[in-house]
Structure formats: C-alpha cells, structure tokens
Q: What sequence folds into this?
C-alpha cells in the first residue's frame, strides 16, 4: 500500500530526455509499465537494487536521481 | 525456466478455465448416479484438476513479477486469506452451535471467495499506486468479463436443464451482472481510446 512518499525523483525527466516511453523504460529495467509509472509519480520508492539499475541505465549517481522528500 | 509473461499467462488461464467448465458440466451430473465409490471420487475430483493448474499458474506469475507487483500480490493474498479465514471461523462456530445449517458442500465456495477478495484487493491497490491494471492486460477487461459471463451463463443453462432452479438462477444472475460490467468497461475503454487516440503508453 502506498504510504507517505518519502523521495522525489527525476526519472520522468531523464526518460523524456531519452525519448523513451514508460513501456520502453520498463522493458530496459525488466519491470512492468505500472511500476515505472508508480516510481515516476512518487507513489512507490524502488528498492536499492532497482534504484541502482535506474542510475546505471541513465549513467548517473543514485543521489542525482533520487532525493529525500519533504517527509524525510 | 522461461518467464511467464502476461499474454501467455492469460492464454493458459483461459484454456484451464474452459476445461474446468467442460469437466464440471460433464462430470457433475454423472457423479450422483455412479455406484462405484472410486469412480465417484475420481469424477468428483476431476473439476479440481484444472483449478490446481490455475493455482500453479498464479504461483508462477507471482514468482515472475517485479518488486511492486509482488508487493501488491502479497497484500492482496493477505487480505483474501484474512477474509476467508474470518468467514470460515465465524461460519464454523455458527454451524457447531447449530445456528446455521452448513454442510460440507459450502467448501466449494472457499476458492471463489478467495479469488474474488484477491482480485478486488489487487484492483484497489493498483489504483492506489496510480495505475489501471486493465492497461497492462494482454486481453482487454471487457473481453475477459464477457468470456467469464458467457461461461457462467452456459453453466447456468446446464444447471437449469438439470432442474436445479436455484443454482441456475445464481449462475445466470452472476453471468448477467458480469455482462453489464463488461459493457461498462467497454464504454470506458472506447471513451478512453477516443480521448487519447491510442492505448496510453505513458509518453
């Protein structure tokens, strides 16, 4: 169940810059499109392995993609 | 072992459910008339075999899901287990106290109740996570509901022919309700297609 979103992220912007759809990104990360959507909208914070996978895919550090939200 | 994707899962599920309905229609009328106990037992258990395959398919699907999907499956299964356990406990005590006349045949509703609670909870959680599960289904929801409605109606008609009017009413009623739901889903689907021009791919 989505609790209080604890992180903000720039996944949507990074994906947009690559010209990928959510389905494209989902395929590259080996997750479902709804998971990508939930991450982008801040309704789900990915696990550490998935966050690393996202960071590697966009060739950025985790901290530059994910940052603490207001709650944390 | 290859991963079980949504399309393959739905195809296998549909085949298993069709076999279930056929076996149910063929085996159940015969089971009461057969004298041999082993044969009676085999015929009674036969419809459960496709459902065991469905449970195995579900386990495979959950195993091959990503982390968010597994989380949703877990919550949905937890809620379904809690509801069924609570109903069984209350029903069991009421039957023991002879307040409610329940016989063993009520057990046949355990699996459908569990699947209903599981499906409803998954749908609710998916919406909370901001997604519409039907977008990721290989077969649109209105088609899926129509097929289930048709199966229910067929079972209802067969039940009616066996002169079991109450069960026939239940099955045909459920079939009609699902057909209405399928129509509503079709309306939503067509409206969404008209506004977006295509299935939303999140661009």
A:
């Amino acid at each position: 169940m989505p609790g209080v979103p604890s992180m903000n992220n720039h996944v949507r912007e990074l994906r947009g810059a690559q010209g990928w759809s959510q389905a494209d990104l989902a395929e590259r990360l080996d997750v479902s499109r709804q998971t990508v959507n939930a991450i982008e909208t801040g309704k789900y914070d990915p696990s550490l392995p998935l966050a690393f996978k996202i960071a590697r895919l966009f060739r950025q550090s985790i901290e530059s993609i994910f940052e603490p939200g207001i709650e944390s | 072992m290859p991963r079980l994707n949504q399309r393959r899962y739905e195809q296998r599920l549909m085949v298993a459910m069709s076999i279930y309905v056929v076996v149910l229609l063929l085996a159940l009328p015969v089971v009461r008339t057969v004298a041999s106990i082993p044969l009676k037992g085999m015929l009674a258990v036969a419809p459960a075999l496709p459902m065991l395959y469905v449970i195995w398919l579900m386990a495979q699907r959950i195993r091959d899901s990503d982390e968010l999907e597994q989380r949703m499956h877990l919550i949905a299964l937890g809620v379904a287990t809690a509801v069924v356990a609570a109903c069984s406990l209350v029903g069991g005590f009421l039957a023991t106290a002879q307040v409610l006349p329940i016989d063993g045949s009520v057990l046949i509703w355990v699996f459908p109740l569990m699947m209903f609670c599981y499906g409803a909870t998954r749908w609710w959680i998916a919406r909370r996570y901001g997604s519409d599960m039907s977008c990721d289904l290989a077969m649109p929801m209105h088609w899926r509901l129509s097929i289930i409605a048709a199966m229910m109606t067929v079972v209802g008609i067969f039940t009616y022919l066996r002169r079991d009017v109450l069960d026939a009413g239940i099955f045909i009623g459920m079939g009609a309700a699902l057909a209405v739901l399928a129509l509503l889903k079709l309306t939503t689907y067509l409206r969404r297609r008209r506004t977006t021009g295509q299935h939303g791919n999140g661009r």
